[in-house]
Amino acid sequence: MDRTDQLYRQRRWSSRQASAAALRVLLWWLGHGLVLVSRFSAPVRSQITRSLTVEISSDDGPYRHFVFDGLQRSVSTSAGRAAAPDFAVRFSDSGQALRYLTSPDVIDRVMGSRIHGTVRVEGNHLLLMWFRGLMRHVLPIGEAGPPRQALPGAYVAHDPAANGVETLTIEPAVHQLDPRWSAAWNARAKLWIVRGANGEPMQEP
Known about the structure:
Layout: H1 3-40, H2 42-47, E1 52-58, E2 63-69, E3 74-79, E4 87-91, H3 94-101, H4 106-116, E5 119-122, H5 126-135, H6 182-188, H7 192-197
Parallel strand pairs: 1-4
Antiparallel strand pairs: 1-2, 2-3, 4-5
Helix pairs in contact: 1-3
């Protein structure tokens, strides 16, 4: 082995070690960030509705799993493998994991690489989008949610002068159907929830 090849191997090994260390820090930050926000953030707690374990790992070492408690609406995390994760994303190396987890297109990149076999996704793939939504509370990368303010020009009240291709007919409020509307009365007779609420006799199903 010549000197150039040896230096190349050393640099490649150092780069992998640095990527693995950076991924451990990122996963630690993500895990403990979720633990913290799940204690104080109502939007995050409202998204934790079931108990499951999520694991993120790379083939060159770093592992971390996240345990979601649907009853307590809480999160706990630990380094290492989970005994039986409900959902897992496994990257081929730490560099790939870093690039994908910090990308605004993480879902598209993970699913694309899954097709090519460089990323393995275990469990219900829809959980990836759910977990990505929680990640954004700790790593706010990517598109934000919808605007919180009302859009200009919203149609919030009837405007008789509005130009449209059709006419809006506004009927006065009534307490019961017009007796002349035989079709409406026939349709009403089939609605058990309406008849039952009014104490009308009902046939056995």
